Each structure stands twice: as C-alpha cells, then as structure tokens.
C-alpha cells in the first residue's frame, strides 16, 4: 500500500545518495593519485619504479575504468587495501564500528531520554523554574565544545575523584550482554562498563540533549498555538490528552527529521570525543589514517559513514511516515 | 531594504528579553577584543619566558614538586622539593607550559575564531543562498539535483571531511599583516596574523548546504505569493524577481541561520585546532590541546581558560540568534550546524 | 415565550498586548432561547469570534475575560451549586463564570459544543477523523460515568498513558464503543460509507465532508447549545447550502439551540430567528429577524444592509459605509459611540457613552428589539449634526 | 454597466487548456506509476469585448483563476489560442510580450499576499514604470507651450516659446499634444516665468535677447524617479488614498486600502484590459462596496475592459455585463448577466442561484434543494457531461420511465458501483433490503429486476458485470456525449437545451 511504495521510493533515493558519496570519495582519491604511490614506493624511488608501481596498482588506466573497478570492488564489500598497514580496509573499519556505534547510541539515548521530557515540561510550564532551567541548560549545552567538556570532566571527576576511567574502552556493551548469561557477575560488568562509557557519552551527548530540548520546546510551543488545539480543547478533552496525544506527537515528527540531518554532527562529535578519551572507534582510526596519509583507509571510513547516514535517514523517514501519514500521500 | 517593521520588532523584543541584552554584551565584547587584540593583550602571545612557565592565574597559588638533581660527591642525587608558585600580576591569567601569557593568547584566539566563523559563514552563504533560491524558484530537475547533492554532502560530517581535506591540501595558512602593528600604533606585538585558509574554504564547502536548504524552502513558498505573480505580470524578469522580491523576503531566516553557523563554525575551528589540523597555533583549541597534558600535573587553568572563552563567544552568538528568531519568527528551527 | 437556555450579561474580554489594551468584547448582552438559532453578525474585527470563545472559556493569553456573567439553564447543575455558590445560582440558571474551572471544563460537550470556520485546521492532520470523533465520545462517556460534575485536568490520561497508547495500540484510552458511536455520528450527519471514511485522514476529505465530520464531533456530548463560528464561510455556495440544511435538520432533531456567528447576512436571514449586530466589540442592535432586516434603527445596520449587492435586482450603485474599521486599541477609542466617526447621522450627543435601549415601535413585533443608538428615542435633526470637519484624532483618552 | 452594445472583441479565447502533471518525477517513472494529468482547464472558449466586464463564475476547483492567469501567461497553457487585439498572446516572443504586459494587467484577491511586505507603497506602484523604463517620451506626440504675457514691458509677438520634445513624459497628452501653460510676469529683477502646474517636475527659463525678443524654454528638470513618484502619488489619490503615503509599508494599511494599492499598481502602466481575480472576496461587506464602486468609476474613466473572476454571485450580478459559469474546467453556460440570472438554462447555474442565501426576511427557513455529493476530482473527471454525477436533471435513456428523483439515485448507484464504494457485506444481508434502503422510493418492476441483478454481481464482487448490467439499461446521453455551448448570445452546454 502507500507506505510500501513510499519505502521503496525512499530506498531508491538512498541508493542514489550512497552512489553520490562513493563518487565524491573517488573524486577525493583521484585528487591525490601521487600520494598512493608515495605510500608504497620507497622515497628515493626513481621514475621507472614509480611507473611500475602505478601500473601494478592500476593507477595508469583511464579514469572511468578505475572508477568501474572501484565500484565493482565496493559492491563485493571490498573497501580497498591499506598499503601503509598492509592489510585490507574492510575488516579493519568493520572492527572499529561497534565502539563508535556504542558511543553514538549511548549519547543519543542520553539525549532523547533527558531532552524530550525537559522540552515538553518547559513548554507546558512556561516562565516557571523548569522552563528557565531548561532554557539555560540547553543554551549552555549547545555552546560548549564537547572536547573541552570531556577534558573538564576528566579534570574534575577522574583526577580528583578517580571513579571514572578517562581513556580506553575496557568493558564494552557486548561484555555486559554476555555477562547476563555468562559466568561474571552482571552487576560488576555493568558498573565496569559505566565507568568507561559515562564520560564520553556525556561529552558527546550534551550538545544533542541541548539541541533536542530546544527543538522540542519550540516545537511544542508552536504546535500548542495552532487552531486545531483550541478546537480539541473545545471538545472537552483533558489538557494532558491535548498536550501529549495531539501536540507532542506532532512535535516529534520535525524533531526526528532534524535528528536524522544532524547525524553528521553526531559522528563528527564522536570522532573528537574518541580523540579525547582515546576511545578505540572509527574516529581515532580516521584521525590516524589522515596523519599517516593512508587514503584507502580514510576513503573506506568515509564510505561506511556515508552508508550509515543514508540508512539512519531512511529509518527516520519511515518513522516520520508512521507518525504523520500526510507525508505518504502528497 | 530592511523595513521599519523589522526594526520595530527587533527593538521591542530586545527591550523585553534580558537574554538578548546579555547576548549583545558578550558578542560586542568579543568583537572588540578580536579587533583591538594588539592593544588589549598585555604581552606578545608568542614570546616564551621559560622562567615564568606554568604560573597560576591571580588568586590561585600552586604547590608544585620540583625534582632537582645535583652532583653530590660523584653521584647524581635527585631531590624533590615542595615549591610554592605564586600568581604574578604581570600574567593575570597565568602562563602556559612554555611561559606564554594566557590572557594574550586568549585575546588573539578570539581573532582567529571570529575571523574563521564570520568568513566561513559568509563564504557558505554566498555559495548556498543563490543556488537555493534558484533551485526553489525554478524547481524541476535543477531542484531535484540540488536536493540529492545536499543529501550527499550532509552524509559527510563536516569535522571528518574538514580533517580529510586539510590532510589532502595541507594547512594552507594565509598570513595577513596586522594593520595596527604595521601602522606603528603599537609595538611588541606580532606584525602578522595567520588565518587558517583551508579551514575557511572547507567550512564553506561543507556548510553552504544549510544555506541552500533554507533559501530553497523560502523560495518554494514565496514563488506562489501573489506579489511575485503580480511582478511577473508587470513584466519583471526572473532576475529582478529573485533579486528584489525573493531575496529581501527570504533574508530573515538566512540571517538567523547565519548566527547559528558562526557559532557552529567557531566550535568546529576549535575542534580542528584541538586535533592539530588548524593552520595556526594562535587558537583556543590549540591551547586546550596543550593544556590537556598539564591536567594530571595540576595546572588546570591552561586547558580551562580557552574553553571558557569559547563558551563566552558561542553563548553570546546563540543568544543573538535566539533574539533574532523570537523577534522575526522566521520559522527555522534546528537547521544549521556543522 | 419559550424559555431561555443562555443569558449573557455585560460580557467584557480584553487583550493586554505590548501595543496596548485591545477591547475586543465590550459589555455584550444577549439571550438565546430554547431550540432557537440566534445569529451574531459583524465584520472582521467586530469581536464576534472572541464572544464565542469567551462563552466556552477558551480565551488564551494575552486575552482575559475581564467581567461579565454567562447564565446557563441546567436544573441539575443549579441544584448542585445552590449551597456552595449561592450567588451563582438563580432559579434554574447558573452563572458559569463563577463556577470552578473544573466544572466549566465539564460543560464543554454536554452544555456547549463548537464548530469553527476552517474544518481542515480544526482537526489534527496526523490522526484519523474517526479516532478524533471517538476521542470526544470517549471523554463524554467517561464524564457521564463519574457523577461529580467536575472534570480534572487529566482525567486519567497522563504521560504513562500516552506512552502506553502509542506503544500498545491494543489497550487504547478510547474504547471500542466510542469508535462505533463515532461511525454512527458520521452516518447521522450524512457522510456516505461512514465506516470506511472513519479510517481516513482529514486531508482525504473535501471541505464540505470535513465540516460534516466537525458537526458529528460536536454532537458527541449531545450539547444544549451548538456554537457555530463562521461554519460555512470557507465552503462553496452549493456545499454551504448542504451544511445549512444539515444544521437546521439537526437543530430540530436534537432540539438544541444554535449560536450562529457569520459576516454573511444571507446566511443569517436563512437560518436565524433572532439576530445581534456587532460592531467594534459591542452589540449595537439586536432583535427578531424582521426587526433588524425590515426596520433597522442603527445607522451601521442600515449601512451594512445597504452595501450588499442584491442578487435579485442589480441596483446601479452600492451605498458603502465610508471610513475604516476602528483599531479597538483602548488608547484610541474615546468614550463615545464607536461608530460616530463613520456615521452619516452623527450628532453632538453621540460623543457621549450610549446605553442600549428598547425601540418603541408598535408596528414591529415587539420581541426585544434593542439598539445602542440615540436615534431610537429622538429623530435625527440636522441642527446639532457633527461638523464634517470634526477632528477625531484629538479625542485620544487622557491616560495615554 | 453599459447597455449591451458589444464593441468588437478585445480578447478571444479558443479551446484553452491547462493540464498539471503529477507523479512525473524521474523516480516515479522508475516505480512505474505513470504521470497523471489534472485537467484544471479543459477547453474554454469565450470573448471579452472592448469596455465590457465579463464575469467568470464557479466554485473552487472549477479552473477560473487558472484561466485568468493562463490568459496573461503567468502560467504556460497546455494548448488553445488567446488572441488579444489580433495577436496570439501564447506565441508572442519576449519583445512583443513586453508590449502586451503594458496593455493587460491583473489585480489579486488576498490583500495580505498581493503586496510585497518589504517594499514601500511608492516602490510597489512605480515598479511597473521602472521595469518598462517609463515614463518614456513618445516620438509622435508633439509638445507645446502657451505663454500668457502679464508683463507690461513685453508684447506677446516678441515672445517665442520652445518646449523640450520629451515633455510628454510628465504631461499627459490631450488629443496628441502635451500642452503646458506658462505665465510671464515682471518682477524686481527682470522677467520671470511660472508654470501653471507640474511646477515641481518642469523647469522654465527666460532669456531676453538684446533686440527685446524673449525666448521661454520649458524642459523636464526632475529625475525619472521623481517623475515616477509624482505619477504614483496621483494614482494613489485616484484610488482614494492620500499621495503623501508613498513611503509607508503595506502592513500599515487595512485590507481595503491594500486592495486599492493593488489597483493603483495595475493602473500604473495605463493598461486597456485587467483580469480581476476575486478582487473583493477577502474584504468585509462595507469595504467591498467601496472597492466595487471604485472599479466601476475607473472602468468608465479609463474605458477599461475587465475579466471579473469571482465565486460570489450577488457581486457578479452587480458589476458584470456578461457572465460565464464554469464547472470543473469547462464553461457550463455563458450569456448576458440578466438573462443568466433570470432565465438560467444549465441545471448547475440553476442550482448555484438557488443555493445563494438572500439577505431578506423572505429567506428565513427557506429549504434549498441541494446538489448531492461533492465536486468530483479533476484528476479523473466524469465522462460526457461533467455535471452528470450531481445533476438533478439527468436525462434517462428513452424506454426508461423513471421520475428524476429515482433516476438520480440509479445514477448514484452506478457511480458507487463503478467507484467500488459499496461494501459487499452490506449487500450480502439481502439485495432487496439494501435496494429499499438505497432507494427511498418504490421502483417499477422492470427496474427492480435490473437493480437486483446488478446487486447480485456486487455480492460476488464481480464489479464489472454489475456496472455493465446497469450501464446497458441506464446509459444516459449525459455520460456518452459531451454537451457543447453554441454560438448564440446566451448558450448552455447541456443536452436538455440542445
């Protein structure tokens, strides 16, 4: 039915975007052919050896052939070969994904659980303490650089009180899940995981908690001003039903859309949070790949990020279509 | 161009909102500090006085173990001795690891951040707004094409793309002469100022999409307005309609977005310089990165003070953005970012 | 004379904005009889919609109902509040303005129901029409189940219930019977294939059909008084005719009174037994249809009737009312007849406050024809007419 | 309203069509859903004669505004021809379009969206002049200066007056000549000449040659911008606003005043033909009357030709000479206003007139026979006559003796069967029961059989067979052939008539 057709249409658009991402990434690679050779060839290699290496790497073929080859590899899931590390990019990148996803999900979870109620309360109880508190908190939240917040937390919590770990990812979410069935005590693993994840999640999540609080608050205020709210109250409906079932539901749709769009900022934030907490995720991998000028690895990571962005946005649009059917029909 | 009503709305909203007044104070102070940095900074931000390294800011004193080693009849004996380090009035905010004055570096850091923030936003707006307006006004294939390209460029997180491009193109820093110093009005200050050129270009390349989205949205709703049809009926060419009807009416949300972008770009620039990808060392992010190493040894202020400076300016700009949004009600919420 | 169901006395609602105090509704009095259609006609800015909102207590800030009484005849309600609010009860009438907010909220449904001008913007676009009507039915069903005539702010619908509803649609706040009753209501207002249409969204309905759905929703609480604020203004003339027929049929079937608010004098003529003409927040003339249409006394009513093109005879020239609608800003409204600056028969006396008075005219059916104009007592005489050049701007009130 | 002496047609519209295409984006073709066309205007023909006001009336969705805008090429027509004063407007190139734009203008409905909120009233009214570089001098208009001499020391014969040939940019020519009057008089320091009017825009100077001869020369001294603003001031005054408000902004005006600014803007280029797209629909009754009177006066003063688009029939009756009634993209009936209102031929026109509530006591409690159902969607309009799905006078095929009420219900049944709007379960409870509830009245035996047979197919959900059984017996001329308006002065597109 209509929702199905809408899903297919969105997926096709998504594939188009992924193709765009791959093309841009390829263009970046094309901009730096020289460096691929430098990475492999010894510094003092003369012109012939460089030519030989170029031929071997297939860099001397016409552009569209290289592009075709590049696409062909990608379809088979082969993100290229990292000459500097001497290993394939795909397994390397995939191994780093769980850490970044864990961090991003923790931050988003913190953001949504905190900010939606905060936004709703500050909208429905205007000019009361909760409203001023939420406004002040969200203003400071979106104005704080997350890496600096991370360092400040390390300074205060870790150095002074020492209860949190300030670097690395000793225990991960996987361990916690395993510990439910596994031998170790669930509680200890959970606490161990929390000591690692809490600071980075707060550092990364603060910006988003503030952003969603502001969005929910202004969305609710705008929705509560619309004529259908007055008509719904005129039906004698209880105020809470008017606010939650009608106003809040219609407020969530634009909030979710913006979340999808801001995913790029989330991943960007993750990269720098990982740098602060030496969190072994995709972010640290990317920074190291740039410092070592390892282009295939960088390109592989960019493509993976691009694909995840498309997937998340398709998911966001499906939720949007579920919440607001008009999207499916017009 | 700006109708009286807009000015009235702004003034009315300003009178009523304390936050708007606070925002204005914060932003104006930062702008003054950035422009007149050479006069305000007590010392040359780049001169190192190793003797005066790691001084705490006024009002704080620091007990520091210093290990000294000396030759005592043939062997090397190391002793750690308690040493109290008092703040020094010459360096109100203390000094960093290399003895450079924190206040001066923070003052010059303002210049970097504001320059990158403003230039990046202007560059992004100049690219994004015309494309967005044209795409929204004409629609059809060009519009579809733009929207797909916007999706693609949103798929690249600005920070990641920025690092990648800086890695590729290098940190092409642009060295600008400092007008006050070259005019001899002040001495002892750095005569040139390095602007992280790649960062500005990268930011422009990435953030124009937000301006294009907003401009396109406005153009889509404005093109069906009756006064646009009336202009067409008068024989106005498309360019006249775009220039004298669409742009003035679309400018409100664009200005509000611009404030959001300046704030976002300042945060981006400080992140880049924190990671060491900015073209200049005179940047708040760079100082925070330096300060990070001194956290465990107790010199907390080196990392803290630049962070507070970032918050000071970004909060100010966001307050100005809220004031514009409340007064002019452009209806854009959540758009923009890095 | 049939019994009255609603008596509005001295209703005054003002908006306290930054630009100043706006007097939207100024000391409005009118009565609505049982089973009668009482029309309120007036141009935009006359305050007719604010009057409607004031009755059902939905005036949002910066508006506030400053003073006034709204007497609603309901024997049970009167008995219930005779001791607790002695001066709010008079026989079977209760002044709902003095009742607690919870009781006034209870009135929305069983006492007053409202339909608005643009049906599309009066319904939540992302919830099906059937669900929204069933909601209204459910709320009335739960209200009737609890004897106390008050309604708490939440009535058992908290944040937890919202999460439960959206996560587990099975156990819904709105029961199955309410959904079935909603379909019956849709059928009663003449919507074909109601079961199917109930599952569709507002944007899939035409203007006419959606207004029928709004009427169905209003009937959920079997109201005594249906307040219709410009119900057919957004509709085409053939669809308008359908809705007007529907309203008059329902009015007989449900024997409810209707307060019909519109700027269209034709609609007033077709539907109403008695009419009130509003200008600048005041009811300047009221009476039976014959009183107001056949021998209007107030120059504004005369001007209004004179400026409408008549479909049956294309008179060569319309006689419009000169000047513009007043700003209602308290600082600019002198303490006088607000129509004086546009009135062709303005006299010196019009510069003083004008109270409402009866029209002594034996010929007209004396059914309470009242007017807020001196011409009711004294004929217009040229002698003390206001000078053409009278400067109206000087009369800015002192405290400004 | 002029007597019905029709001047020669200024505008001729022939089979004008305007289709919108939905779902034709690249992705849709990929998904295989073919582009659907919305026939907003589907073959409209009418003429508008010099100095006349033709009304274009119809409910929302009938295509009247689209027609108005397509005439002026604010929207591209799908096909058909629009000839304005002999030229086919749809084929004009940019150069010719500029000329056309000066002769045909438009006034819109919504006072709040028809004026650019960012422009001052002066800028709005003068925009047209600026675009066309007006006021430009017109070479074949002569300019002349009449000098009246009041100075004793100079006699008339000695005075020669020269007028700059672009005086017509300021002074409106009367019968081909832009004439200015100057008076010459003696002052303390020599001869002085003063202009009778346009003083602020024209400059005059006087030279006394040695031999006592005096030359008075007059030329335009003001800048283009000043001339335009003065002209705008005069236009504002002409539409009832004060000329010293040029620098105020639209939000400082009421709805009625803004419509007057919109009219002034349309008049700025001195057009011959104006499309009035619902100019008073958004106004209150008292203000509406003021604007209608203004439009009337302007038509007489400037000899304007109006195409008056509206949905309010009493306004149309008041202001239009002839009226075209439109329904779902086609002209249902066209003719002189009085004949249309007093002797309507098309059932839709009758229904429209019947539905309008009159502001009289006799209207009280009047029960109107309303049309059934809703306006069908222009995506798939009904075949043959588009009004057949709601027409109270559908023509039954010969051999079927059913009075109108019953036949109307048969046609409703056929529409719901073809639209599959009937829920088969309702019919399964017994075709007779369903039939009785559907038809409030009794049907002749023959018709009962056919209906029962069709309902039988509905039970088995064989929709095509059900539709075919009903179509066989009840196919009416209204659905097979499309009625067309004739050439007579008052003609309707309905089989009842032809």
What does this structure look like?
The complex is a heterotetramer of chains A (330), B (338), C (400) and D (498). Chain A is built from 15 helices and two strands. With 330 residues, chain A is an all-alpha fold. Chain A has a two-stranded antiparallel ribbon with strand order 1-2. In chain A, strand 1 and strand 2 (87-88) form a beta hairpin. The mean pLDDT of chain A is 84. By secondary structure, chain B is mostly helical. Helix content of chain B is 63%, strand content 9%. Chain B has helices at residues 4-16, 18-35, 37-40, 102-138, 140-154, 158-169, 179-182, 197-222, 226-233, 238-274, 284-294, 301-328, and strands at 62-72, 75-85, 173-177, 192-196. In chain B, strands 1-2 form a two-stranded antiparallel ribbon. Chain B has a two-stranded antiparallel sheet with strand order 3-4. The model of chain B has no long low-confidence stretch (mean pLDDT 85). Helices cover 29% and strands 20% of the residues of chain C. Chain C contains twelve helices and 13 strands. Chain C has helices spanning 48-55, 75-81, 101-107, 129-145, 159-167, 176-188, 194-198, 207-218, 237-253, 265-271, 289-294, 299-306; strands spanning 4-17, 20-33, 37-41, 63-73, 89-90, 93-95, 112-115, 225-229, 257-262, 274-279, 282-288, 357-358, 370-371. In chain C, a hairpin with a 2-residue loop joins strand 1 (4-17) and strand 2. Residues 396-400 of chain C have low confidence and may be disordered. The two termini of chain D are 30 Å apart. By secondary structure, chain D is α/β, with parallel strands linked by helices. The longest helix of chain D has 18 residues, at 285-302. Chain D has a seven-stranded mixed β-sheet, sandwiched between helices. In chain D, helix 11 runs antiparallel to helix 15 (463-474). Chains in contact: A-B, A-C, A-D, B-D, C-D. The interface between B and D is medium-sized, with 22 and 31 residues.
* DSSP, total strands of chain A: 2
Radius of gyration of chain A: 24 Å
Structure class of chain B: mainly alpha
Largest interface: A-B, 57 and 50 residues
Low-confidence stretches of chain A: none
> Order of strands across the biggest sheet of chain A?
1-2
User: How large a portion of the residues of chain B is in β-strands, by DSSP E?
Assistant: 5-15%
Stretches of chain B where pLDDT is under 50 for at least 5 consecutive residues are: none
**Helix fraction of chain A by DSSP (H/I, runs of at least 4):** over 70%
Q: What is the number of helices of chain B?
A: 12
State the distance separating the first and last CA atoms of chain A: 14 Å
On the 0 to 100 scale, the average pLDDT of chain B is: 85
Q: What is the oligomeric state here? A: heterotetramer
Biggest sheet of chain B: strands side by side, in what order? 1-2
**Beta strand count of chain B:** 4
Q: Topology as H/E string of chain A?
A: HHHHEEHHHHHHHHHHH
The largest pleated sheet of chain B is described as:
2 strands, antiparallel
Taken as a percent bin, the fraction of beta residues of chain A is under 5%
Radius of gyration of chain B: 25 Å
Question: What is the terminal separation of chain B in angstroms?
Answer: 30 Å
């Amino acid at each position: 039915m209509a929702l199905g057709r809408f899903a297919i249409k969105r997926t096709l658009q998504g594939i188009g975007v992924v193709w765009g991402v791959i093309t841009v990434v390829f263009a970046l690679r094309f901009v730096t052919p020289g460096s691929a050779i430098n990475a492999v060839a010894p510094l003092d290699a003369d012109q012939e050896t460089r030519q030989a290496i170029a031929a071997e790497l297939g860099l001397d073929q016409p552009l569209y052939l290289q592009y075709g080859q590049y696409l062909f590899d990608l379809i088979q899931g082969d993100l290229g070969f990292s000459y500097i590390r001497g290993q394939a990019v795909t397994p390397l990148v995939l191994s780093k994904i769980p850490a970044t996803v864990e961090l991003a999900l923790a931050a988003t979870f913190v953001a949504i659980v905190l900010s939606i109620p905060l936004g709703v309360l500050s909208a429905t109880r205007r000019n009361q303490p909760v409203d001023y508190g939420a406004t002040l908190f969200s203003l400071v939240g979106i104005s704080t650089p997350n890496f600096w917040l991370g360092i400040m937390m390390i300074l205060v919590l870790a150095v002074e009180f020492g209860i949190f770990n300030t670097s690395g990812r000793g225990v991960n979410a996987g361990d916690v899940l395993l510990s439910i069935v596994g031998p170790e005590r669930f509680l200890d693993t959970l606490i161990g995981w929390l000591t690692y994840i809490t600071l980075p999640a707060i550092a990364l999540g603060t910006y988003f908690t503030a952003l969603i609080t502001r969005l929910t608050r202004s969305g609710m205020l705008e929705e509560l001003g619309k004529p259908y709210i007055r008509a719904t109250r005129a039906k004698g409906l209880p105020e809470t039903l008017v606010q939650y079932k009608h106003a809040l539901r219609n407020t969530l749709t634009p909030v979710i859309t913006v979340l999808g769009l801001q995913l790029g900022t989330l991943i960007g934030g993750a990269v720098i949070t990982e740098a602060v907490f030496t969190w072994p995720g995709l972010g640290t991998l990317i920074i190291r790949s740039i410092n070592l000028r390892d282009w295939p690895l960088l390109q592989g990571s960019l493509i993976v990020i691009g694909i995840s962005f498309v997937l998340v946005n398709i998911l966001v649009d499906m939720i949007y279509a579920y919440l607001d059917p008009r999207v499916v029909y017009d | 161009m700006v109708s009286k009503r807009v000015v009235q709305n702004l003034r009315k909203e300003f009178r009523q909102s304390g936050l708007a007044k606070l925002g204005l104070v914060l932003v104006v102070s930062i702008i003054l500090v950035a422009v007149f940095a050479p006069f305000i900074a007590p010392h040359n931000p780049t001169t190192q006085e190793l003797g005066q390294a790691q001084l705490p800011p006024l009002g704080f004193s620091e007990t520091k173990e210093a290990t000294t080693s000396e030759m005592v009849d043939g062997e090397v004996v190391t002793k750690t001795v308690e040493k109290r380090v008092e703040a020094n009035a010459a360096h109100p905010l203390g000094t960093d690891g290399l003895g450079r004055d924190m206040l001066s570096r923070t003052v010059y850091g303002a210049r970097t951040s504001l320059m990158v923030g403003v230039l990046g936003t202007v560059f992004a707006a100049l690219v994004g707004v015309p494309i967005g307006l044209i795409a929204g006004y004409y629609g059809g294939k060009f519009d579809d094409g733009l929207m797909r390209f916007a999706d693609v460029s949103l798929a690249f997180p600005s920070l990641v793309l920025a690092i990648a491009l800086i890695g590729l193109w290098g940190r092409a820093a642009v060295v600008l002469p400092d007008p006050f110093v070259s005019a001899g009005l002040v001495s002892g200050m750095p005569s040139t100022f390095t602007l992280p050129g790649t960062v500005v270009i990268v930011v422009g390349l990435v953030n124009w999409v937000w301006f294009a989205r907003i401009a396109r949205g406005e153009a889509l709703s404005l093109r069906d307005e009756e006064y646009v049809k009336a202009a067409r009926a008068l024989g106005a060419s498309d360019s006249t309609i775009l220039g004298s009807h669409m742009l003035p009416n679309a400018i409100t949300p664009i200005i509000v977005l611009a404030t959001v972008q300046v704030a976002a770009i300042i945060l981006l620039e400080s992140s880049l310089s924190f990671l060491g990808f900015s073209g200049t060392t005179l940047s708040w992010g760079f100082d925070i990165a330096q300060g990070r190493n001194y956290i465990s040894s107790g010199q907390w202020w080196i990392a803290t003070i630049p962070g507070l400076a970032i918050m000071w300016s970004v909060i100010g700009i966001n307050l100005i953005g809220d004031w514009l949004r409340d007064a002019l009600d452009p209806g854009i919420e959540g758009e923009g970012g890095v | 004379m049939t019994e009255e169901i609603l008596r509005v006395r001295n209703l005054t609602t003002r908006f306290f904005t930054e630009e100043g105090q706006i007097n939207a509704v100024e000391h409005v009095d009118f009565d609505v009889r049982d089973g009668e259609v009482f029309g309120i006609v007036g141009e935009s800015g006359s305050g007719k919609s604010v009057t409607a909102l004031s009755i059902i207590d939905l005036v949002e800030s910066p508006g506030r109902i400053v003073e006034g009484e709204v007497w609603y005849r309901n024997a049970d309600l009167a008995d219930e509040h005779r001791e607790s609010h002695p001066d709010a009860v008079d026989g079977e009438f209760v002044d709902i303005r003095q009742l607690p907010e919870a009781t006034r909220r209870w009135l929305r449904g069983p006492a007053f129901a409202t339909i608005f001008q643009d049906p599309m913007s009066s319904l939540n676009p992302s919830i099906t029409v059937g669900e929204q009507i069933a909601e209204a039915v459910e709320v009335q069903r739960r209200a009737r189940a609890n004897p106390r005539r008050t309604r708490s702010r939440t009535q058992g619908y908290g944040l937890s219930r919202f999460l439960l509803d959206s996560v587990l649609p099975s156990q819904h706040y709105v029961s199955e019977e309410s959904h079935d009753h909603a379909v019956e209501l849709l059928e009663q207002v003449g919507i074909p294939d109601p079961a199917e249409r109930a599952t569709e969204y507002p944007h899939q309905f035409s203007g006419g059909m959606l207004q029928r759905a709004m009427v169905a929703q209003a009937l959920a609480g079997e109201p005594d008084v249906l307040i219709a604020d410009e119900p057919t203004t957004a509709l085409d003339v053939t669809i308008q005719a359908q809705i007007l027929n529907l309203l008059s049929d329902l009015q007989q079937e449900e024997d409810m009174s209707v307060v019909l608010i519109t700027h269209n004098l034709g609609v007033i003529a077709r539907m109403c037994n008695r009419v009130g003409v509003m200008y600048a927040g005041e009811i300047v003339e009221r009476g039976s249809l014959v009183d107001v249409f056949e021998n209007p006394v107030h120059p504004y009513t005369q001007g209004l009737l004179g400026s409408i093109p008549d479909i049956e005879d294309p008179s060569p020239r319309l006689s419009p009312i000169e000047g513009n609608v007043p700003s209602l800003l308290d600082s600019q409204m002198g303490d006088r007849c607000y129509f004086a600056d546009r009135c062709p028969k303005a006299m010196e006396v019009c510069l003083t406050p004008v109270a409402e008075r009866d029209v002594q005219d034996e010929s007209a059916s004396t059914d309470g024809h009242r007017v807020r104009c001196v011409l009711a007592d004294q004929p217009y005489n040229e002698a003390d007419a206001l000078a053409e050049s009278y400067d109206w701007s000087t009369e800015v009130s002192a405290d400004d | 309203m002029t007597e019905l002496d029709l001047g020669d047609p200024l505008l001729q519209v022939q089979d004008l069509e305007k289709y919108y295409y939905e779902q034709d984006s690249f992705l849709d073709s990929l998904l295989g859903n073919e582009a659907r066309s919305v026939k907003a205007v589907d073959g409209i023909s009418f003429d508008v004669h010099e100095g006349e006001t033709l009304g274009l009336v119809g409910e929302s969705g009938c295509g009247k505004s689209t027609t108005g805008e397509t005439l002026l090429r604010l929207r591209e027509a799908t096909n058909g021809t629009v000839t304005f004063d002999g030229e086919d407007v749809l084929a004009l190139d940019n150069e010719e379009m500029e000329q056309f734009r000066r002769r045909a203008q438009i006034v819109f409905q919504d006072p709040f969206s028809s004026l650019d909120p960012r422009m001052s009233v002066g800028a709005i009214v003068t925009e047209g002049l600026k675009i066309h570089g007006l006021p430009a001098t017109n070479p074949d208009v002569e300019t002349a200066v009449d000098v009246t001499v009041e100075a004793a020391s100079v006699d008339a014969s000695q005075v020669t007056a020269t007028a700059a040939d672009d005086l017509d940019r300021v002074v409106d020519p009367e019968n081909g000549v832009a004439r200015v009057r100057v008076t010459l008089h003696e002052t303390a320091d020599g001869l002085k000449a003063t202009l009778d009017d346009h003083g602020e825009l024209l400059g005059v100077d006087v030279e006394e040659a040695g031999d006592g001869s005096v030359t008075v020369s007059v030329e335009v001294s003001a800048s283009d911008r000043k001339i335009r603003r003065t002209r705008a001031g005069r236009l504002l005054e002409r539409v009832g606003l004060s000329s010293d408000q040029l620098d105020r902004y639209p939000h400082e005006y009421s709805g009625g005043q803004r419509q007057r600014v919109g009219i002034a803007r349309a008049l700025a280029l001195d057009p011959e033909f104006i499309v009035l797209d619902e100019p008073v629909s958004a106004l209150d009754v008292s203000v509406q009357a003021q604007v209608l009177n203004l439009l009337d006066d302007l038509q007489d003063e400037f000899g304007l030709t109006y195409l008056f688009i509206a949905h309010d029939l009493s306004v149309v009756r008041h202001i239009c000479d002839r009226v075209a009634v439109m329904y779902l993209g086609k002209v249902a009936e066209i003719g002189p206003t009085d004949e249309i209102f007093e002797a309507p031929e098309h059932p839709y026109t009758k229904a429209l007139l019947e539905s309008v509530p009159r502001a009289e006591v006799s209207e009280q409690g009047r029960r109107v026979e309303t049309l059934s159902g809703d306006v069908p969607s222009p995506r798939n309009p009904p075949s043959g006559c588009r009004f057949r799905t709601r027409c109270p006078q559908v023509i039954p095929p010969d051999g079927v003796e059913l009075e109108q009420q019953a036949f109307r219900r048969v046609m409703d049944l056929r529409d719901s069967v073809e639209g599959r709007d009937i829920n088969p379960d309702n019919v399964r409870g017994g075709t007779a029961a369903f039939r009785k509830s559907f038809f409030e009245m009794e049907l002749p035996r023959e018709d009962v059989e056919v209906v029962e047979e069709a309902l039988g197919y509905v039970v088995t959900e064989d929709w095509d067979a059900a539709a075919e059984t009903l179509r066989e017996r009840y196919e009416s001329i209204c659905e097979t052939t499309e009625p067309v308006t004739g050439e007579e002065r008052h003609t309707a597109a309905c089989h009842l008539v032809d």
